[in-house]
Amino acid sequence: MSKIAYVNGRYLPQSEASVNIEDRGYQFGDGIYEVVHLHDGRYVDEDLHLARLERSLGEIQLAMPMSRAALSVVLREVAQRNRVREGLLYMQVTRGVARRDHAFPTKPVPPALVVTIRRVPAYPTDVDKWQAACITLPDLRWARRDIKSVNLLPNCLARQKAREQGAIEAILYDEATCMVTEGAATTFWIVDENGAIRTRFLDHVVLPGCTRAALMAELRTLGMAYDEREFSLDEMRRAREAFITSATSFVKPITKIDGNPVGDGKVGPVVRRLFDIFARHVKGDVKNAA
């Protein structure tokens, strides 16, 4: 069966789907995107992802292409037409098609919306097989990293360097302060030397991760403390445990950074518990009901 994409109001085989070469997303990266995990036919944390989409669009003065309710219908239709029950959905909204000019079109044009989906394996069952390695790199991205923009060249370059070194992610840091920001496409956490679960506070420097927010909500429900406080490379290197979160990583243990073990180099007890907590969130939390 051909993969089906939603492109500007039409459901088309992906082999036939296209966008205009003067779409501002192609010309300037003038757009916003979201990635949502579909588990057993249910979009995980859909409300968080659509809220972040709407916020990011507002930050670049771009209207939602349709109401949230209508967009939810499109997301479900794309999954149904592709017969996908376990997958990753990608949606992208750009400022649309206009004559190439850096400033916004003088006459507003309709925003462009593209939605695709692909099958992926279900939530992993073995946390020890889910562990991975990272490298560290200076954070070279633009100043408004809280906006989920399609401008991802620095992220791509960082991920490529990680791959070349046998790692799955690059942990980025501010060169001036040596303070860790986040992963190239993930939120980065540590369990520090005192046992505190920590990740950086939110501002314009990091993306407000939806998986980050969902995990924090679960921790609050369970009465487990966490600390939204930045940490340095040195503190990271002294950490007992480390992990990343995202819609594709869920809770992924990081047991090696820059070739050196994190803690004892094994999946630690805190991350092991968080992995199980988030598995329950993905598979059955009532907040995710369709």
Structural class, judged by helices and strands?
alpha+beta
Percent strand? 25-35%
Q: Which stretches of 5+ consecutive residues score pLDDT under 50?
A: 286-290
Average pLDDT: 96
Shape: globular
Q: What count of helical segments does DSSP give?
A: 8
- The CATH fourth-level homologous superfamily of the largest domain: D-amino Acid Aminotransferase, subunit A, domain 2
CATH architecture of the largest domain, by name, is: Alpha-Beta Barrel
Helix share bin: 25-40%
Radius of gyration: 19 Å
- Sketch the topology as an H/E string, one letter per element: EEHEEHHEEHEHEEEEHEHEEEH
Largest sheet: 9 strands, mixed
Which CATH top level class of the largest domain fits?
Answer: Alpha Beta
Q: What would you say this structure looks like, in words?
A:
This protein is an alpha+beta fold and 290 residues long. The protein folds into 2 domains: 4-119, D-amino Acid Aminotransferase, Chain A, domain 1 (2-Layer Sandwich), CATH 3.30.470; 127-288, D-amino Acid Aminotransferase, subunit A, domain 2 (D-amino Acid Aminotransferase, Chain A, domain 2), CATH 3.20.10.10. 29% of the residues lie in helices and 27% in strands. The two termini are 26 Å apart. The relative contact order is 0.14. Residues 286-290 have low confidence and may be disordered.
